[in-house]
């Protein structure tokens, strides 16, 4: 029995390592992709300044790399490292890297150009050096502790009966309760939900998730929210966790339940026409 537990533990560790390896490979590929796009911007601006306008090498390179840095930092922070780190702090550390890298690359590259190296070749060499050192700096220093702390937002669809749908539309109901199932486990703060009214699917409400609270049961959830109007109840109406059992059985609640707090950001409701 002990050997089986050890074997299972090793299998889990190996599986976890494989996932981490895949995530790291994907992260590198994203960095490469954004670096290539930043490189295109750098080369295009450099070629315009250095060859078309016929500026000196160093100001042409300096301007082109600044444009490249702004582009690269913005997209890598959001998509590659998905960091919730303070943008100004992260930018300050990135700036520190370039405070060291730019003088080295500018003066070093200028010397290479002075001894006969082609300007474009020197720029390509500096870009390669920039790519390797910048990835290491951002991956292992700037974003090391904040990687994947701000997952990309997504939009999911859910259905609601008419009564809770109308209460969300009126601004009374601000918390939706669901099972903590596979679909809900993938939700993150910042995600959007499109609620469709059952029987009138053309009626839709768009909300943004502001907070997610996980509970072991609806009993705990109902105890947490003292103001039951947030859950969709009227003032003075008796609110019981047993009310949820008509939607979800005790067995279905075994993995816990989720309270989804949100703000209404859009409506697409069928307008009622008055009869004469």
In a few lines, what is going on in this structure?
The chain is of the alpha+beta class and 276 residues long. It has seven helices and five strands; from the N terminus they run ααααβαβαββαβ.
Topology (elements, then pairings):
Elements: H1 2-52, H2 57-80, H3 87-114, H4 119-142, E1 155-160, H5 162-170, E2 175-179, H6 182-185, E3 192-197, E4 200-215, H7 218-224, E5 257-268
Parallel strand pairs: 1-3
Antiparallel strand pairs: 2-5, 3-4, 4-5
What descriptive keywords fit this protein?
single chain; 276 residues; alpha+beta; Archaeosine Trna-guanine Transglycosylase, Chain: A, domain 4; 2 domains; five-stranded mixed β-sheet; 7 helices; elongated; disordered C terminus
Your description of this structure?
By secondary structure, this protein is of the alpha+beta class. It has two domains: 2-142, no CATH class; 155-268, Hypothetical protein (Archaeosine Trna-guanine Transglycosylase, Chain: A, domain 4). The protein is 53% helix and 16% strand. It is built from seven helices and five strands, in the order H-H-H-H-E-H-E-H-E-E-H-E. Strands 1-3-4-5-2 form a five-stranded mixed β-sheet. A hairpin with a 2-residue loop joins strand 3 (192-197) and strand 4 (200-215). Helix 1 runs antiparallel to helix 2 (57-80), helix 1 (2-52) runs antiparallel to helix 4 and helix 2 packs antiparallel against helix 3. The radius of gyration is 27 Å and the shape is elongated. It starts with a helix and ends in an 8-residue tail after the last strand. The relative contact order is 0.09. The model is unreliable at 271-276 (pLDDT under 50).
